[in-house]
Fold these 4 entries.
Entry 1:
Amino acid sequence: MKTPSLRAFSFGLALLLLPCASRAADTNSPPRLIVELRDGSRVVGISADKQFRLRSALLGELKLDVNDIRGVQCVSSNSAKLTTAGGDSLTVSFREPVLAVNTSFGRVNLAVTSLRKFSVVPGAGSGAAAGLAGLWSGEGSGKNSMGNTDAQLKNVSVVADSRGQVFAFNGYNSYLRIPASVDFKPGPENGMTLTAWIRPDRAFGETPICEFERELGTYNGADVGVSFAFSVNPPSGTGAGCVMCNLADTAGNSHLLSSVPGLLAAGYWQHVALSYDGTSGLATIYLNGKSIAESSVGHFEPQTGFDLLVGARTTFGSPERPARAFLGNMDKISFYNRALSAAEVEAVCRDGNNGELPVVPANVVPPVYRNFGGNGYGQ
């Protein structure tokens, strides 16, 4: 966690508190609030107020623009840990009794005492949120917070966790199925990024995180598009604890990348991301906000035009009994129809973990591993 000096922190907040007239014109769409309540409910919408009135024992009365906040974790009825867009943390109390949110079903006033936490997703054109086409959190359903492509839950439970409500997979026949969408077909120039928070109960055995499948339950490897997995054996991966991908393209070619083994740990919440830059041809795999594998794989259009499956591979199996299945929990699965930069991936990771990078077991040192060949995962 950042622990800035009072002078540095005050200066940073002073910049955030500059009058709106002194700022450059904001042409971005307004940020979205994803609010989780203490009873397990979730509300998604736009803040009815441009600023939040807060009080800090350290800095006194504050007015912070919603754009300058990334998350608030409520500690008690009126005490919360606030994380700014810059990653700084501050304990605050709310000066207003309600949080007003404009939702698809009208304006709702949420009592501050009912809040568990909320996150601020910057509007389109602002930071890492530009290009965010899908965001599936485990808050009671498979709803896509960014659009209409809601996930179908196949034997997936929603359970309470330190992160709130998360998806629970049984390692046998559970997965999310997200219908194909034009929003997930960025084209050959833009590239793409997949991210997810995962807590695997085991870190051995070939395990899918997510992949695109044309038709479920076939025995044809050509029916699999882009795939993202861990603990895949050679030649496609490097063994237990590796994180790997096959950036299958629309022409049916495989483009493989894998980290070294032994990086992913069982029993920990970890952030994984796969990014492909269509302009540079660079593919990168990230773990906990840091690059663990990268390779120049060329210029092509990734095959993301199929249904997106999370937590299973039905190819070479069936929809009722997938060939591979994830055991453990997942949260905040997201798809961007552009390549995020390394700094943006780290920011997304921090935003989902109260401004901090996840704690990695002491015996895990994530080197960068470059891979320039191999066969398709599971094909």
Entry 2:
Amino acid sequence: MKEPPRINPELIIEISALKQKIKELEHSESERKRASEVLRESEERFRLIADYTYDWESWVGPDGKLIWVNPGVLHLTGYSVADCCAMTEFPLPIIDEADRERVAGEFAKAGQGTSWRNFEFRIRCKDGSLKWGAVSYQSVYGASGNKRGYRLSVRDITDRREIESGLEIARKELEATKISEEEAREYA
């Protein structure tokens, strides 16, 4: 008669340790999947906010190079995100030549940490037309406090500027039609 195999106590300990390691790996994989899903949802929320913002939004790095621009730039300028990413010295090529130097100075200040609201300038669109934009900008910082560049938020103020221009023309025409008090007495 055969003797039953003997169980090696070391083998039992090793099998038990392997079972524990498998449980830990399964838990770790579950945690990784959960973290991956949270990250995916966070990225989707960011994209929904960033890509569906009506205005032109940009992030410029500490080196002055474009890191990110949203699709709102296309609506305002006619330039796609890819067009903007391919530009050297973005966004200066989009700025009307008459305002380019002034805007470059403002963006240099932005790179040094200054913030500003509603700085107005002219935009030369891809089709050659001219629009007015108002930019607000501020520095952005990482979680550890390190400077990550600055954000630009540009909105279209073309309609407002056209109305203001029309009002100014009307005011001048009204002034030109006014007669002096002395002239009025002569007609009385």
Entry 3:
Amino acid sequence: MVRSSYETYLYPGPVEVSVPFPPHLTYPSTEHAGTPTPPGARGATRIETDLAGQPDVQAEMMLLLGRIYRELGVYDRARPLLERSLDLRQTRFGPEDVQAASVMAELGRLWLDMGRPEDAEQLQRETLTLRRQLLGPNHPDVGKTLRDLAMVLTSRGTYDEAETLQREALALNQREFDPEHAEVASDLEGLQSILRARGQSEAAVVAARQVLVIRQKVLGPDHLEAATAMNNLAILHRERWELAEAERLYREVLAFDLRRLGEVHPYTATVSNNLAFVLRDRGQYDDAERLFRSALDIDHRLYGREHPNVATVLNNLAGVLSAKGDYDESERRSREALAMFRRVYGDDSWRIGMVQGAIAGVLSARRDPGAEALYREASAGLEKSLTPANPTLEPVLIGLGHHLTVRGAADQAEPLLRRALRTRLSRLGENHPRTAEAQVRLGACLAALGQWDEALTLLTAGHARLRDEPHFRSESREAERVLSTFPSAAR
């Protein structure tokens, strides 16, 4: 089971992953919680030398060490171990080997974590075919591979097939196990991830609550996996803008982590980061900044200066600094994150466009003429790596649209802002503040174009929703300002 989201990480399944979602971090798998950091390259060398002549043991140890490195985000060490493990298994037993399938599954998870979903999909499909052939269609390992493949497809926006496969896995495990078995809970967790990606938040909450009930009943309320399920439920409440409930759940998880795991632990960093987003959304910027800095300090102590989690929290911290008007540090932190993401994932990752969009927002706030070019570069990168309706695109479309409107190019802004509003309405509904944000930006654009009637409707609705939301104070004020400029005949 995976704790989802460093609210800027991905949403996993038993990895949240699922698709790129803006700001969350994933909890590492609890399967190896408490496992000490593995030895460096020396450990891999010793497996080769000390276990020479024992290829089966070598392959198993390399699989174990490679899995741990993957879960720690040390991908450059995980990859050679897993590839060597697979080579050993296939050399000794041929391509149709059950243990080789286990290594293939782990390699598929690595490719997904590294931002290579095409490779991940291919490998998971091969694993599924192999396991069905060797183990039969109803074996629990087939269910695990269905879940892994569903996660990959979710990350690629292939939601229909992803949900079909995940429900197949759930049905398989419900036939094989009792209703409160760990595999059933993991399948429900995977299903909640897909439903979340599809914008079906009510159904996702139902699935998440089922996971929490199972974990608490079977393992007890004071168990790591129960806390993990609570964290994942809190993410959904935050996305539904049920901030009081999200904060309550996060604080309960944070208290558990501090009590049971200590301050310097990946889970403590994760929930600190996630709680910071709720506080930011409630307009409590100082408290949010403090928690982001705490999460960053923990990650530095755990992983050093260079790690995907470090880059994620750097960019999250940059966001709240920008909201406070501290543009200098905000830009510096985002540029640190951008450089780190490039080194870890390469230039084609969606993370690059996400951070470029954040930097462009700071440049736009400063009236820097370089903002438009960076917004367009971010948009092009995200369009290339994500599906058209992916929510990670929305802030860039809205940011660029607003920037163009302010600079007198409202005709260019209109299609971008209409697209963003359309996806937010579909995903979040009419009453969500982020939908209202898009309404205000589009309304201001249409007012600049003289389309008074539609602009009035959008600005009035957006302002009514945002006027009591501290985090959207600037959008609320913009709605008031633009409405005050309307010709009397248009009011």
Entry 4:
Amino acid sequence: MCGLRDVLQLMKLMQSHTLLHCQKIYLLILIQLWELQSKVIIMKHNKLFEYAVLFIICGITYYLLEVLARGHSYFSMLVVGGLAGVLIGGLNNTIYNWSTPLILQQFVSMLIITSLELISGLILNTWLNLGIWDYSNQWGNIAGQICPKFMVLWFFVSLIGIFIDDFVRWKFFDEDKPHYKLF
């Protein structure tokens, strides 16, 4: 038997482990969430639970992407990635429909991620002085926390978040099967 508490404990373990261990823990989390699927069907109208699942999956996915790209990450990035996933997913479920071009969804998602990066950067790097990232040597940066180069990256990374959100809502919460319009 598993529950969200077990998933959260596994998420905490990821912070101090290597990439290989993180991948194994990620798979364990996905397996536990899949086992929760039978319970989810009963709770499919519980939006708080739905957003909690999306937060966990998107947060862990972003954390692992950062470990792959940088060789390490911080627990706070799991939180920022989860929040970005929930906000992007919220747009998918409230404002967008299947006829909304994927490119437009990515553009708005890029703006959301960049805004979160600025806010979290000002809190984590400037106010708390954690030094998680510093773009001050990048062209067009604002306070060393955001820059155009990474905005372009977020445009492409947001596609992963959009696909995850749609897939999770389809498989776990019995919503529409994803289909997309590029332009």
